[in-house]
């Protein structure tokens, strides 16, 4: 065991403090730039650490699970110092566009309306089951009693969700082997996840487990929901990306997007908080207004989900929108919500924009394109901007919404190569206390748009 005293030079992009030992960087979790730390090393692995000199920016974390749970990395940092670190990380990732970065927008704590919890059920003693988040080093689940990222109603539901676990244990298979050949085995921990969304009219719960929900499980879930009326739907899926089956639904969950009631399919993608959602919508709507000389009529909303930007564009700007997404359930939800709210000017299209992006001649139909892709980015779709023979006919305005600044930077590079100018980037911190960042970026095309008349 080697003992060292080190100084933290800076905080890296994932939050760890960085010390220099023999010209090599050593990453030390839960430390702050300027602190002096005593560490014990074994084969270059930190076995023990203690603070010799604290930073004035250090505070007591608000969550009792902070040092164990892998969800948050910076709760030990004062608010102002945390926001400075997050903004600096964002600027460093997008350093070639630093002059285009505008004010950072920070979302309040205790605002999350959705959460994905892991569970481990002990077959022999269900009362010892765990419900929580992965530990920092993965492979281990941290049992939680509270989460200070969640809104009050969602956090208050955690004890109720814990009561679900004994009800979803699958029946043990009959072992036909004789006792002579039976071996003693350790109790099996049944693993899975529970995805919860706080909708406007109650809670939507999806259980993700490898086994099937048999009749006994279904009956227990019906009884559970009857005794907990705030849970209005329970669904079951065997895999994260499979279509969940509705076990019960007393009401169809919905959320509000700019006063439009939007149906919520199980495990829908939506922004983590209402405030985060509204902030992104405001930035997108403002960008369209600022660039509308009366010539913006048709807008493409790509990777549209359930219509986070689609509905505001129609209700606030009265523009025609074509909404495109690969998820059939989300497109169906968008269509149902469109009819229920008696909205027009919306066309929806189920389409995989990675394998089948809008071609260059299709892009010419729109004055504005919005894209909000998964973390992988929208490189296949952006490539079609490059492929366009008549680049003057491309949309005058492109609005990028991204939860991954690294993949956004690659998309931005291609758009700029096409002839677009990056006007502004706003970082939106809706993944509080973590290294994750959301952004909205505005691209404009300086050339006069020339295109043939195309009937939509």
Cα-to-Cα separation, first versus last residue: 71 Å
Q: What's the CATH topology label of the largest domain?
A: Rossmann fold
CATH class annotation of the largest domain: Alpha Beta
**Share in β-strands:** 25-35%
CATH level 4 superfamily of the largest domain: Vaccinia Virus protein VP39
Classify the helix fraction into a percent range. 10-25%
Shape label: globular
On the 0 to 100 scale, the average pLDDT is 92
| Biggest sheet details | 8 strands, mixed
Strand order of the largest sheet: 7-22-23-21-20-17-18-19
Q: Give the total of beta strands.
A: 23
Going by CATH, the architecture of the largest domain would be: 3-Layer(aba) Sandwich
- Alpha-carbon Rg, integer: 25 Å
Structural class: alpha/beta
Poorly predicted runs of 5 or more residues = 174-182
Oligomer: single chain
Q: How many discrete structural domains?
A: 3
Q: How would you sum up this structure, described in words?
A:
This protein has 456 residues and is α/β, with parallel strands linked by helices. It is built from 10 helices and 23 strands. The protein has 3 domains: 90 residues, Nucleic acid-binding proteins (OB fold (Dihydrolipoamide Acetyltransferase, E2P)), CATH 2.40.50.140; 188 residues, Vaccinia Virus protein VP39 (Rossmann fold), CATH 3.40.50; 125 residues, Beta Barrel (OB fold (Dihydrolipoamide Acetyltransferase, E2P)), CATH 2.40.50. Helices cover 23% and strands 29% of the residues. It has an 8-stranded mixed beta sheet with strand order 7-22-23-21-20-17-18-19, sandwiched between helices. A 7-stranded mixed beta sheet has the order 10-9-8-11-12-13-14, with helices on one face.
